[in-house]
Write a structure and sequence with these properties.
475 residues; alpha/beta; Rossmann fold; 7-stranded parallel β-sheet; 6-stranded parallel β-sheet; 19 helices; elongated; transferase; Glyco_trans_1; glycosyltransferase activity
Length: 475
C-alpha cells in the first residue's frame, strides 16, 4: 500500500507546483504572460534588449470553425478591425484592448494594432507586448505611416481606446477623418477631469458610438461634455468587464489557492490565522492608500479600546514603487512609522501577478477617491476569490458591490475614514459575515462578470456599430 500512497502524494505535489507556476504567471487581466512570453534569450531577433518582429510572426492559422460558431463574436470572422491605443504599456486600458484583439483573433477577425504615443526609446515591455500580439496574428505597425491610413480606410471597424487616442485622428488621418468617423467605436475608460480637452474629443459627437465600462462613468461623460465642452456624446454603450476563464479556473481550485495562501503569507511573515486587509492598486493619492492606512490605524485603536478579541490584523499595500521615490509613498511610510504599526503594514512592489495576493488575503479594500473607479476590475477578481470588498461608494464600484451583501461601502474623502475603520472592525469580528459576503460575491461574479458575459455584451455593441456604419456609408 505504500507505493500507491507515495505516488498519490507525488501527483498532488506536482499539481500544486503546476498551479503555483500558473498563478505566478497570471495577472489581474490574465495577460501577464505578455511580459516575457516572446523574449527567449536565444531569439536571434533580439538586439540590445529589443525584439525585431519577423514577417512570419504575422501569420496565424484560422481558428477552428466550431470555436467561431460558439463565440458570440463569430460574426466578426474575416472582418478587418483596426485598434488604436494611446500607448502600449501594462496599464489597464491597453491591456483591455489587447484582450479584445485576442477575442477577435480567436474568431478569425483580421486585427491591426496602432500605438499613437510611442517613445523613441521604447522599453522591453513594449517590445514584448508587440511580440506577443504578432505571435497571435495581430498586425502591429506605425501609427503615422501610410499603412495606418490605408488600414483605417479599408477597415470594417476602428476602435479608439481611451480619450487621449483621439489625437491620432487629426494628427495622422487629417483630410481622411470624415471618411473614418462613421466606423469608429470609441472605448472610454477615464474618469478624471483633465481628459476633457477639446483637442482630444472634438470628433466624439461624430463617431458611431462610445463604449464605456460603467453607467456611472457614462453619465459623467454625458453631462460633462455637454456642460464643459458644449458637445454631445454619440450613442453610448455600457459594457461591464468580465473575469477571464484562466483566472476563474485558478480562483476555483482549492489546492492552488491554499498553496498560494501559504506561500505569500510566509513571504510576508504573517501567520495562517492572521487577518489581512489589502489594497491592490498603483500607489497614488487618487487610489486612497493614505486614507486606507488612516482607517486601518483607527480600526486597531477601536479594537483596543473596546477590548475586542480578534486575530492579529495586517494591512497589505500592493502597488508600491519606491524606485520612483514619490512624495506620496514617502508620506505613507512615514505615517506607518509615526504610528508605530510597522509590524502590521506590508508594502509590496507593483506587480501584475495579483492572483497569489488574492488567494492570501481575507478582505479587499477598493478605496479609489473622487469619482471612484471607472469600473475596477480588481474588484470582480477579488470576488472570484470569494473575498468581501470594502469599497468607496463611487464610480463603477457601486455597480459591482452590493452594499451589505457582497461587501460594505463607505464615503470618499476624509469623511470615509471612520466608516471604513468601523467596517474593517465589523468584518474582523464577524467571521461568518465575512465568509458569507465572499460567497455571495462569488455567486454575483458567476452570474454577471465572466468573460462570456463580456463577450456577449461586446458582440451586441459591435453588431449595432457595424450595421450603423454600413448605413452611414450608403447614405
Amino acid at each position: 500500500m505504500a507505493k500507491p500512497a507515495t505516488a498519490g502524494w507525488i501527483s498532488l505535489q506536482n499539481k500544486r507546483l503546476l498551479f503555483l507556476l500558473l498563478l505566478v504567471f497570471s495577472g489581474s487581466t490574465a495577460l501577464v504572460l505578455f511580459i516575457r512570453g516572446g523574449l527567449d534569450s536565444c531569439d536571434p531577433r533580439r538586439e540590445g534588449g529589443r525584439v525585431a518582429p519577423a514577417a512570419s510572426d504575422r501569420v496565424q492559422l484560422q481558428p477552428p470553425a466550431a470555436r467561431v460558431q460558439k463565440s458570440p463574436l463569430g460574426f466578426m470572422r474575416s472582418k478587418l478591425v483596426l485598434l488604436v491605443s494611446h500607448e502600449l504599456s501594462l496599464s489597464g486600458g491597453p491591456l483591455l484592448l489587447m484582450e479584445l484583439a485576442f477575442l477577435l483573433r480567436n474568431v478569425g477577425s483580421q486585427v491591426a494594432w496602432i500605438t499613437n504615443q510611442k517613445s523613441e526609446d521604447a522599453n522591453e515591455v513594449t517590445y514584448s507586448l508587440e511580440h506577443k500580439m504578432l505571435n497571435r496574428g495581430v498586425q502591429v505597425f506605425s501609427a503615422k505611416g501610410q499603412e495606418a491610413i490605408d488600414t483605417a480606410l479599408k477597415a470594417d471597424l476602428v476602435v479608439l481606446n481611451t480619450a487621449v487616442a483621439g489625437k491620432w485622428l487629426d494628427g495622422v488621418l487629417k483630410e481622411h477623418v470624415s471618411q473614418v468617423l462613421p466606423k469608429i467605436l470609441w472605448w472610454i475608460h477615464e474618469m478624471r477631469g483633465h481628459y476633457f480637452k477639446l483637442e482630444y474629443v472634438k470628433h466624439l459627437p461624430f463617431v458611431t458610438g462610445a463604449m464605456i465600462d460603467s453607467y456611472t462613468t457614462a453619465e459623467y461623460w454625458k453631462n460633462r461634455t455637454h456642460e464643459r465642452l458644449k458637445i454631445q456624446m454619440p450613442q453610448i454603450y455600457v459594457v461591464h468587464l468580465g473575469n477571464s476563464r484562466e483566472l476563474m479556473e485558478v480562483a476555483e481550485d482549492n489546492i492552488a489557492r491554499r498553496v498560494l495562501r501559504e506561500h505569500i503569507r510566509e513571504s510576508l511573515g504573517v501567520r495562517s490565522d492572521d487577518l489581512l486587509f489589502a489594497i491592490i492598486n498603483s500607489v497614488s493619492r487618487g487610489k486612497g492608500q493614505d486614507l486606507f492606512l488612516h482607517s486601518f490605524y483607527e480600526s486597531l485603536q477601536l479594537i483596543q479600546e473596546q477590548k475586542l478579541q480578534v486575530p492579529s490584523m495586517h494591512a497589505v499595500v500592493v502597488g508600491s514603487d519606491m524606485n520612483a521615490q514619490t512624495k506620496f509613498e514617502t508620506e505613507l511610510r512615514d505615517f506607518v512609522s509615526k504610528k508605530g504599526i510597522q509590524d502590521h503594514v506590508h508594502f509590496v512592489n507593483k506587480t501584475l501577478t495579483v492572483a497569489p495576493y488574492l488567494a492570501a488575503i481575507d478582505v479587499l479594500v477598493q478605496n479609489s477617491q473622487a469619482r471612484g473607479e471607472c469600473f475596477g476590475r480588481i474588484t470582480i477578481e477579488a470576488m472570484a476569490f470569494q473575498l468581501p470588498v470594502l469599497g468607496t461608494a463611487a464610480g463603477g464600484t457601486t455597480e459591482i458591490v452590493v452594499n451589505g451583501s457582497t461587501g460594505l461601502l463607505h464615503p470618499v474623502g476624509k469623511e470615509g475614514v471612520t466608516p471604513l475603520a468601523k467596517n474593517i472592525v465589523k468584518l474582523a469580528t464577524h467571521v461568518e459575515r465575512r465568509l458569507t459576503m465572499g460567497r455571495k460575491g462569488y455567486e454575483r461574479v458567476r452570474k454577471r462578470f465572466m468573460e462570456h458575459h463580456m463577450e456577449e455584451r461586446i458582440a451586441s455593441v459591435l453588431k449595432e456599430v457595424l450595421w450603423k456604419s454600413k448605413s452611414n456609408s450608403r447614405s
